[in-house]
Amino acid sequence: MLDEIKTQFNTLKQLGYQDFQLKKICQDAIGTTKLEQVPPGKLQYLLKVLESQVSFAYKCKQKFNG
Asked: Do 32 and 38 touch, CB atoms closer than 8 A?
């Protein structure tokens, strides 16, 4: 699951997100940025949050790029 999360992080970085923004998303979603200490249920929730963020970022990109 950590690989899937890292993939979402990389996608968000490619879409223009900065490291501090990704840390804030983690902190808000699961209460920490130390993913190796998080139980699987919370990691699954974080993955869903990141997937939603990627979807939102793509929609924004499409809107501004025409």
From this structure: yes
**Between the CA of residue 24 and those of 9, 19, 41, what are the distances in Å?**
12, 9, 19
> What does the pLDDT look like over 20-61, one tens digit per residue?
999 999 999 999 999 999 999 999 999 999 999 999 999 988
Number of domains in the chain: 1
What span, in angstroms and rounded, lies between the C-alpha atoms of 5 and 44? 9
Residue 38's domain comprises: 2-65
Residue 17: which of 63, 64, 61, 66 has the closest Cα? 61
